[in-house]
Amino acid sequence: MAYINVTNIQVKNNPAPFREPLTFQITFECLKDLPEEIEWRLLYIGSSKDVKYDQVLDSFSMGPLEYGVMQFDLESAAPNPEQIPQSELLGVTAIILSVSYNNQEFFRVGYYVYNFYEDPELSENPPEQVQIDKITRNILSEKPRITRFDIKWGDEKDDENAENLETNKAEDEQSFREKMHLFMNDGDASHSEALNHSQNPFLTTHEASNNFSTTGHNLFTNENLDETSKHTNPFS
Fold this sequence. Notes:
This protein is of the alpha+beta class.
């Protein structure tokens, strides 16, 4: 049983210019007092082909935590375009938000990101040098890829379920990158398809937010939120 349950994530400034900060409103519930901190990490995939271009946009800790529901805003600077290959500044990439406890990742949500020229002329005749200030970033917020991992929370009974954690994490991340790589190199795929729910090549029945539930409720809803127990973000 997980003692931290992420119940809602909202992408707030979207679409936005490429250089604009990324902002997420995150709601989670703590089902048990936890003596150790949880760590949040936001990762931007700079290239589907090589992890060396990944950029950690933000990383911070929160805790110890008490039982209850908490909400905060995570605001991060945009990725540094100089650390991204020119050939991959435009098109489809991804961001990944992960949460860990005692150096064990227990929750991960990935969103595909579509970077494009909004100006039709630039879109049809893109310049050889990518014009960063002309790029619009669109995070496909309605199509999250959500993964949960069993970890050791300090409860012996629950810790028995955490044996294959590292294998499952590696397989999930590799699958995520392979899907993105295939799409980005598919000459027949149009960018507009990435924004179309019915044609989205990344979305499977196991990745749509409505197919993930917590105690009978959809993962990304506010049904279980106790308004009196929300907290403002001490880190913003």
